[in-house]
Amino acid sequence: MRKFTIPTIIIFLSLIFLGIFVPNTGKAHILRMADKTTPGLEEVVDDLVQVRIVFIGESHGSPEHHRAQLRIIQALKEKGKKLAVGLEMFQSESQEVLDQWTAGKLKAREFKAAFEENWKYWDLYREIFHYAQNQDIPLVGLNVDRSIIRQVARGGLASLRKEQLEKLPVTSCNVSPAYEQYIRRALGGHIKDVPFKNFCEAQLLWDMSMAENLVRFMRENPEYTVVVLAGEGHSWKHAIPAQVEKKADYTYRVLLPKEIGLSRKNKFTEDDADYLLLGLEVAPLH
Known about the structure:
By secondary structure, the chain is α/β, with parallel strands linked by helices. The chain has a single domain, classed as 3-Layer(aba) Sandwich (Rossmann fold). The protein has 13 helices and seven strands. Strand 6, helix 13 and strand 7 (about 275-280) form a beta-alpha-beta unit. Helix 3 (about 65-80) packs parallel to helix 6 (about 120-135). The radius of gyration is 18 Å and the shape is globular. About 40% of the residues are buried.
């Protein structure tokens, strides 16, 4: 694990929640956690159309993960769902830019520039963004200002000013035992440099803010099903989905790539995800 330093904390926070996609030279497939069977994509999509939110975790730099995300979005659209796509890759303050893109009012180079102010790997997300624009699928910025996350990671919630706290969901380091174990494992041997409490508060603030922005959009747009694209560490059931459950009663499913960051020393169960994406990419619909 790379050396953890305060000046690079936001980079480290991002990297530890990336997954490692397990190669598979056989037929790509999906594992359903409830019964450990491998249904085809069409059967999985028939399940997904029944819920309001579909979380698809990713390793941000994995082309295979983004191809799988796009195929699932396409499959849901082909089923006639009215879709929106929630994005960890954009802050909520960028919503006007996202709306302009969907409406066809921004050129690709302008939207790329806006994307790169927030994130990286444009080439890996490009097809998703173009498909959303072509199909008139709204894009929703879910993320919070990263400077706030950095500040909390350094000094905890107590370091924030009153006016900052007023704009954020009230939070503390109160997570499930499974999530605490994951955060401690991710932090590794660097607790002496950054207190676990601060690190945990930063991660939970991240999840809660994205959940709050997601729920706000859904309340204002009840006709939409939202596909959420976020790092696997934010997408598993103990993260954003758990925070959504505290705010609203929306049905959802979680699909995660089969990766090492969450499963190491633990076996995946239905408490973590509904489906695991296995192989290099999701097979096409028949």
